[in-house]
Specification:
Pfam families: UTP20. By secondary structure, the protein is mainly alpha-helical. The chain has 2 domains: about 150 residues; about 80 residues, no CATH class. It contains 11 helices and no strands.
């Protein structure tokens, strides 16, 4: 039973006494004080302990105010390659657990996109298969938390899914338009050359075609979103006209 475990217990008791108004302040102070090296692992374990404690409280504890900082720090920890062997917190990864707890405890529809944004950015920027696998694991656990969430209505979840699908597809279409414009501009420029440029061969040609494709992993997010939609429909399936009308906007995406 280390001194850090005692501090976590003390923080949980403070949250119980002070209430949800001071949760954001406590999280921000933890982030400001735990910034270097192994302290990131201590921070994530501390946040995990706080979320577990909040989930056991009988009162309606809204954690939306601290949601942004928690999700971003959890994503940073998941992508970290620095793992010291002499730190107990570094031996276990709590990122997926934190994402599931966030999905279960979230109250606001607006904060759903805030939780997804760090993972979406990581999928857009990274091409490492290990990082993509970690992001998919976090998304899966976040989905598990959303399915068991009792604070969000089915309407709020459907709105979140629709917004995420349309936003992702718009970004993909805009990227395709930009690529077409770029290629067209290059073709127009090549018309004015007296001597045509040498065609690319072998690896250079492959590299030329890949360099402009930046968002090749967004399909993971779309697949996760459609899977969440499928599970929600199965869970709340009924013949009510209101429920059927909420499914109509997703026909074009399915």
């Amino acid at each position: 039973y280390s001194i850090r475990d005692q501090e976590r217990d003390c923080l949980c008791k403070c949250i119980t006494v002070f209430g949800k108004r001071y949760l954001k302040f406590i999280i921000e102070e933890l982030i400001a004080g735990l910034q270097r090296g192994y302290q990131h692992f201590v921070l994530l374990h501390t946040v995990h302990s706080i979320l577990i404690h909040i989930s056991t409280l009988t009162d309606d504890f809204n954690i939306d105010s601290a949601k942004k900082t928690e999700s971003s720090k959890a994503n940073e920890h998941e992508n970290s390659s620095y793992k010291p062997s002499n730190i107990p917190e570094a031996k276990t990864n709590k990122t997926a657990n934190v994402m599931e707890l966030l999905g279960r405890l979230i109250h606001s529809n607006d904060e759903l996109l805030t939780c997804i944004e760090p993972i979406r950015q990581q999928l857009s920027l990274s091409h490492d298969s290990r990082q993509i696998s970690k992001c998919e694991k976090c998304l899966q656990r976040f989905q598990t938390g959303l399915i068991s969430n009792t604070h969000l209505s089915i309407e709020s979840l459907f709105i979140f899914i629709y917004h995420l699908l349309t936003k992702t597809e718009e970004n993909s279409s805009n990227e395709k338009i930009n690529n077409k414009t770029f290629n067209k501009t290059n073709e127009e420029r090549s018309k004015y050359h007296l001597i045509p440029s040498e065609p690319k061969r072998g690896h250079a040609r492959v590299a030329q075609s890949i360099i402009h494709v930046k968002k090749t992993n967004i399909h993971c997010l779309i697949s996760w979103t459609l899977n969440l939609l499928n599970k929600l429909i199965k869970k709340h399936k009924n013949d009510d006209q209101t429920f059927l009308s909420m499914i109509d906007p997703f026909i074009i995406h399915i």
